[in-house]
Design brief:
Radius of gyration: 24 Å
Shape: globular
Largest sheet: 6 strands, parallel
Structural class: alpha/beta
Oligomer: single chain
Number of helices: 21
Length: 536
C-alpha cells in the first residue's frame, strides 16, 4: 500500500507526539495539508492569518507545552515572514520545528523565477536554526522528520528546519513511519563535576546566576536544592525568571543581586550566556572564581573565562554537582537589605509597578505572563514576581517588537487550562492584531492587555531626550475594544490597576479570548534601572 509524501509526513509527525501544527496553507503545501486533513482526529491544524503569527504561536506553544512547537509555511515569502519568529525562538532556546515548502525539486537553485522562489532558501533557513535538512524523495521524509525531532530535543534546544518540495509531497511511496529517535544525551564529564564541587565547597560567599537554561520544573527543583545546600543567593536573569520562586529567601533579581554578585568569591553560572548587552562577560575573573553549567560549549568560550565548565543539561549537571558536594556548613545570607533597596529604586517607576502588581495579584501562581517591548514590559523584567518555572515569557536578546500577542496565543493553546496574560503596547500589538481572528476562530482563551498611548513610546522618549524632536513615532490607532468585538473577541476598557486586576480575574476559567485596552499616559522611563548588567 502506497502513500503520498504528505500523508507520510502527517503520520510521522503524529508518531513524534505532535498534537498541533500552526501554519498558513498554500499551493506548495497542498499534499501536506491533505495529509493533515486525513489525520485531523489525531493532529490539529491552526490556521493563522500571517506566517509570522504561525511561527510565533509555535514558539509560545513550545515554551509551555513541554513538547516542540511545529509550524508549516510556504517557501519564499512564507519562510521570510516566519523569520522574525524563528530568530526569537533561536534567541530564547525554544524548540520549534519549522516545516517549509520548496519549489519543485528540478528547479531548485536554477533561478527560473518560479512562484515563491528565492535563491539560497536552505542557507537562509540554516541561519535561523540549529539544524536543517531537505527531503529529495518521499522515502526520505520519515527519517528527516525523525532527525529533526531528535535534534530539537537534544543538547541546547533551538529551532530546526525541514524543507519538502511539492513534487516530493505528492509522490507515492511504500515507505512507512519510523520509530522516534528520542533525546541524545551527552555523557557528563565527571572530572569537571568534581572540580566544580570542590570550588563550591571551599567558597565563602558563593552566588548562583541563572539564565533561560533553567526553565523546566526538574531543573528548577535541582537548582533550589543545590542553592539551599550552599546557602547561595540565586540571581535570575530576565530569561531565568521563575527558575527559583521569587518567594524563596535565596532568590534575587539582577537589580537586587548586583551587589551580592560583585562581592561573591565564587560564581556559578547556570544556563546563561553570561554576557552583558555590550557583549562583555557579566563579571571578569580576578576576585571571583567562575563555574559554568551549559548545554552549549559555545556559551562558555571567549570572551568569558571560566575556571570550570560543565557541559550538560542543567538538571543533570546540578544534580551531579550536588551529589559530588561534601557536607557544607554555611549560614544563610542576610538578603532583606538588598530587596529593600530594590523596592526603593523601583519606586521611581511606580506607575508601571502598580499595573504589574495588579496583574500579578490576579494571575494564579501557575499562570503564564508574556511580556513585550513596552513600558510596562520593560519594568516587568525587574518588578514582576515569578513563582514557577516556565511561566515568564520573553523575546530574549532578539527583542522582537510585536512578538508577544501571537506568542501568547500559542502559549494559551499549549498551557492546558492555565491562564495566560499577554501585555502589549499599542505599537507592538499592531504587528499581529489580525490574529484576533485566529483567537476567535479557535476559541483561544488568551487575555490580551493593550496599553495605549498612540505612539511608539520608548522610541518617542529617546528621540525627544536625545534630539529635542521626534519623527515617525505617532500612531493612528483604532478603537481596540471595538476592533476586538468586530473579530468576535470580548473587549473592555479599564483605566485603573484595580480595574485591570478585576478584568483578568473575571476572564479566568473561560476558553474565550479577551482584550483589555488600557489608556496609558507618560510614565517615568525604566531604562536607568535596566542599565544594570544584563545576564542572558
Amino acid at each position: 500500500m502506497t502513500k503520498t509524501g504528505g500523508e507520510l509526513l502527517a503520520e510521522q509527525l503524529i508518531a513524534e507526539g505532535v498534537q498541533t501544527v500552526f501554519g498558513v496553507p498554500g499551493i506548495q503545501l497542498d499534499y501536506a495539508m491533505d495529509g493533515l486533513a486525513q489525520n485531523r482526529a489525531s493532529i490539529e491544524f491552526i490556521s493563522a492569518r500571517h506566517e509570522q503569527g504561525a511561527a510565533y504561536m509555535a514558539d509560545g506553544y513550545a515554551r509551555v507545552a513541554g513538547r516542540p512547537g511545529v509550524c508549516m509555511v510556504v517557501p519564499g515569502p512564507g519562510l521570510l515572514n516566519a523569520g522574525a519568529a524563528l530568530s526569537t525562538a533561536y534567541a530564547t532556546n525554544s524548540p520549534v520545528v519549522c516545516i517549509a515548502g520548496q519549489i519543485p525539486s528540478p528547479a531548485i537553485g536554477r533561478g527560473l523565477g518560479l512562484l515563491h522562489e528565492i535563491q539560497g532558501q536552505s542557507e537562509l533557513l540554516r541561519s535561523l536554526t540549529k539544524w536543517n535538512g531537505i527531503a529529495r524523495s518521499p522515502e526520505e521524509i520519515p527519517g528527516l522528520v525523525r532527525e529533526a525531532f531528535a535534534q530539537v530535543s537534544s543538547g541546547r534546544p533551538r529551532p530546526v528546519g525541514i524543507e519538502i518540495p511539492p513534487d516530493v509531497l505528492q509522490a507515492a511511496t511504500a515507505a512507512g513511519v519510523e520509530k522516534p529517535a528520542g533525546d541524545r544525551t551527552v555523557e557528563i564529564d565527571e572530572d569537571s563535576v568534581a572540580r566544580a564541587a570542590e570550588i563550591l565547597a571551599a567558597a565563602e560567599r558563593p552566588a548562583i546566576v541563572v539564565g533561560g537554561g533553567v526553565r523546566d520544573a526538574a531543573a528548577s527543583a535541582a537548582l533550589q536544592a543545590l542553592a539551599e545546600r550552599l546557602a547561595a543567593p540565586v540571581i535570575t536573569s530576565r530569561n531565568g525568571k521563575g527558575a527559583i520562586s521569587d518567594r524563596h529567601p535565596l532568590a534575587l533579581s539582577r537589580l537586587a543581586g548586583a551587589e551580592v554578585l560583585a562581592n561573591a568569591d565564587v560564581v556559578l553560572a547556570v544556563g546563561t550566556r553570561f554576557i552583558t548587552m555590550a557583549g562583555q562577560p557579566v563579571i571578569r575573573p580576578g576576585r571571583h572564581r567562575l563555574i559554568a553549567i551549559n548545554a552549549d560549549p559555545a556559551d562558555v568560550g571567549a570572551p568569558r573565562a571560566f575556571d570550570v565548565a560543565v557541559i550538560a543539561d542543567a538538571t543533570v549537571a546540578l544534580e551531579a554537582i550536588a551529589g559530588a558536594l561534601p557536607d557544607v556548613e554555611r549560614a544563610a545570607p542576610a538578603l532583606d537589605g538588598y530587596r529593600e533597596r530594590e523596592r526603593e529604586a523601583l519606586s521611581a517607576i511606580a506607575p508601571q509597578v502598580e499595573w504589574l502588581q495588579a496583574i500579578r495579584g490576579a494571575l494564579p501562581d501557575d499562570g503564564i505572563f508574556v511580556e513585550e517591548l513596552t513600558q510596562v514590559g520593560y519594568a516587568a523584567r525587574l518588578a514582576f514576581p515569578v513563582y514557577q518555572a516556565g511561566t515568564y515569557v520573553t523575546p530574549g536578546y532578539q527583542g522582537t517588537l510585536g512578538y508577544g500577542f501571537p506568542v501568547g496565543l500559542g502559549a494559551a493553546v499549549g498551557a492546558r487550562g492555565r491562564q495566560v496574560v499577554s501585555i502589549n503596547g499599542d505599537g507592538g500589538f499592531g504587528w499581529a492584531l489580525q490574529e484576533l481572528s485566529t483567537a476567535a476562530k479557535y476559541g483561544i482563551g488568551l487575555v490580551t492587555v493593550v496599553f495605549r498611548n498612540d505612539a511608539f513610546g520608548n522610541v518617542q522618549r529617546i528621540q525627544s531626550e536625545t534630539f529635542g524632536r521626534t519623527i515617525g513615532v505617532e500612531l493612528n490607532n483604532p478603537d481596540f475594544v471595538a476592533l476586538a468585538r468586530e473579530f468576535g473577541v470580548a473587549g473592555e476598557r479599564v483605566s485603573t490597576p484595580d480595574g485591570l486586576g478585576a478584568a483578568i480575574r473575571n476572564a479566568r476559567g473561560t476558553d474565550a479570548p479577551v482584550l483589555i485596552e488600557v489608556p496609558f499616559g507618560d510614565v517615568p522611563s525604566p531604562w536607568k534601572l535596566l542599565a544594570e548588567p544584563s545576564i542572558g
